[in-house]
Specification:
mainly beta; 3 domains; Thrombin, subunit H; 6-stranded antiparallel beta barrel; Immunoglobulin-like; 9% helix
Length: 445
C-alpha cells in the first residue's frame, strides 16, 4: 500500500513538472471586413473571425525543459476577394533555450500576442493612377539616351529606402499615386514599411500585395495631398533589353551610403531556374544586400529589372541578377489590365502627374462592392490545384477558392497557375443566380 502511494505521489509530481503537450492557449484572428481566409505557412485554418489552439509554450517562456516550444518563425497570410492581401509575422525571436544549469538547448520563437487584427484595403483604393510602360512590340519611337549624370538626376527621386524591424531594402514608385515596387523578401511578413524618400522625408508604405513565387511585392504610400504626385519610373519589358547595353542600379546597400549608384552592362537575359521563376537579367553592376527591390535602369531612364540577388560563390565575382520588368508587368496587369495595351513610348524616368493621374485611370473592379444588389449573380470558383489566379474579363480577382458577385451578362473566366495550362470558360450570369465552377488545370506543355 505504501509503495502504491509513493508511485501515485511521483506520478502527480511528474504531471505538475511536465504539463501535457495538448494543453495550450488560443491564437485569434479577426479582420475588417470579416470572412477573410487565414493561412499559416501556406495552410488554411479558417476564415475570420477564427482561432487555433497552440501549446502554452508558444506564447510565453517555458519554465521546464519538457515544455513545448515553437522552433521556427510563423507567418500568416490573410486574404479576401476584392481586397489587398496582408501578410503578418506572428512571432518574435529567435530566443536561446537555456536549462537551469545554463546549458543551451537551441533556439525558439514566441507569438507576439494572442490576437491579431487586420484592416483590409479594397483593391480599388490601393491600385490607383496609371502605369507607364514601353512594350517591345508597340509602335512609336524610342526615348533618346541620357548622360549618366542626367539619368541619375531624373531617376533618383523615384527610389526609396525601405526599413522593417529586422531588415531593409530598396523600392521605387511606379505611379504618381504612391504605388511602389520592391522584392517580396523585403516586404514579407510586414504590414507596413518605414519609407525614406531621397529628399529626406519619412512616410509609411502599407504592403498591399505579395507574389512570393516571383519575389515581387507592391506597397502603397498615401500622399499627404491629392495635388501632390510622387516621382515615378517608366517600365520597359524584357523584349527591349539587349545583351551588352549599359545599365545602372540605384539602391541602399548595407554599410554604405543610401541611394548609391552602380554601373555595369547586361551580361545575359533569359530563364535561370537556379534563381527562381520568371525571366532574369544578369548584370555585372555591383548588387549587394540592401539593393534588393531597387531598379535596374537602361540609359533611357526606364526600369528593365528589379535588383534581387547576387551570386555568392568562391571564385565568382560581379554576377548579379534582376527580375525582368516583364515579370513585374505580369504582376501589375492583375490590377492595371490596360497596361498591356501601351502603344506609346514610355516617357523618361520620374514621369510627372500630367501624364499619369487621369480621371479615367483604369480601376480594378472590386467584387466585394458591386454596383447594386439587383442584376448580380454569385459565382463560386475552385480549382485543382488550389491558389490559381482568377481573371474575369481580363481583370484580376484574387486566387481560388473564391466566391465572386458578378453583374448579369456574359463574362470571360480565365484561371492561371504556374506550370499549368490556362483554364478558360465563357459564363452567362443571370440575376440572383448561384453558379459553381470547378477547374482542373492540366500540366503545361
Amino acid at each position: 500500500m505504501a509503495s502504491r502511494s509513493r508511485v501515485s505521489i511521483c506520478a502527480v509530481l511528474f504531471v505538475l513538472a511536465c504539463p501535457l503537450r495538448g494543453y495550450g492557449d488560443k491564437l485569434q484572428f479577426t479582420s475588417n471586413p470579416s470572412g477573410a481566409t487565414v493561412e499559416l505557412d501556406g495552410v488554411a485554418i479558417g476564415t475570420t473571425p477564427c482561432e487555433k489552439n497552440f501549446p502554452g509554450g508558444y506564447f510565453h517562456k517555458t519554465k521546464t525543459s519538457f515544455g513545448a516550444r515553437l522552433e521556427h518563425p510563423l507567418v500568416a497570410r490573410i486574404s479576401l476577394t476584392g481586397y489587398a492581401t496582408k501578410e503578418l509575422t506572428l512571432t518574435e525571436g529567435p530566443l536561446n533555450w537555456l536549462s537551469l544549469n545554463g546549458r543551451s538547448h537551441g533556439e525558439y520563437w514566441l507569438f507576439k500576442t494572442d490576437h491579431f487584427h487586420v484592416d483590409l484595403q479594397p483593391i480599388s483604393e490601393a491600385f490607383t493612377g496609371e502605369i507607364v510602360a514601353r512594350v517591345s512590340d508597340a509602335g512609336g519611337g524610342v526615348q533618346p539616351e541620357l548622360s549618366l549624370e542626367e539619368l541619375v538626376r531624373q531617376t533618383k527621386p523615384a527610389v526609396v529606402y525601405l526599413k522593417a524591424l529586422d531588415k531593409s531594402g530598396t523600392g521605387f514608385f511606379v505611379t504618381g499615386t504612391g504605388v511602389l515596387v520592391t522584392n517580396a523578401h523585403v516586404a514579407r511578413g510586414e504590414e507596413s514599411l518605414l519609407t525614406l524618400l531621397s529628399g529626406g522625408q519619412q512616410v509609411e508604405a502599407k504592403v498591399v500585395y505579395i507574389d512570393a513565387e516571383l519575389d515581387i511585392a507592391l506597397a502603397k504610400v498615401e500622399s499627404p495631398s491629392a495635388q501632390i504626385d510622387f516621382p515615378h519610373l517608366a517600365l520597359a519589358d524584357a523584349g527591349s533589353v539587349r545583351q551588352g547595353e549599359t545599365v545602372l542600379a540605384i539602391g541602399n546597400p548595407g554599410d554604405a551610403m543610401l541611394f548609391s549608384v552602380t554601373k555595369g552592362i547586361v551580361s545575359a537575359v533569359g530563364k535561370f531556374p537556379n534563381a527562381g521563376q520568371g525571366t532574369w537579367i544578369q548584370t555585372d553592376a555591383p548588387i549587394n544586400p540592401g539593393n534588393s527591390g531597387g531598379p535596374l535602369l537602361n540609359t533611357r531612364g526606364e526600369v528593365i529589372g528589379i535588383n534581387t540577388l547576387k551570386l555568392v560563390k568562391k571564385n565568382a565575382n560581379g554576377i548579379g541578377f534582376a527580375h525582368s520588368s516583364s515579370d513585374l508587368l505580369e504582376v501589375l496587369r492583375r490590377f492595371y489590365p490596360n497596361v498591356a495595351a501601351a502603344s506609346r513610348p514610355a516617357t523618361p524616368a520620374a514621369t510627372q502627374s500630367a501624364l499619369t493621374e487621369t480621371s479615367n485611370s483604369p480601376q480594378p473592379s472590386t467584387p466585394a462592392s458591386p454596383p447594386a444588389l439587383d442584376g448580380v449573380g454569385t459565382v463560386s470558383i475552385s480549382s485543382d490545384p488550389d491558389g490559381a489566379e482568377i481573371f474575369v474579363d481580363d481583370k484580376f480577382h484574387g486566387n481560388t477558392p473564391a466566391t465572386l458577385k458578378l453583374p448579369t451578362g456574359s463574362h470571360s473566366i480565365v484561371l492561371k497557375f504556374p506550370g499549368r495550362a490556362d483554364w478558360r470558360r465563357t459564363l452567362e450570369v443571370l440575376k440572383s443566380s448561384k453558379t459553381s465552377l470547378k477547374a482542373t488545370l492540366e500540366p503545361g506543355h
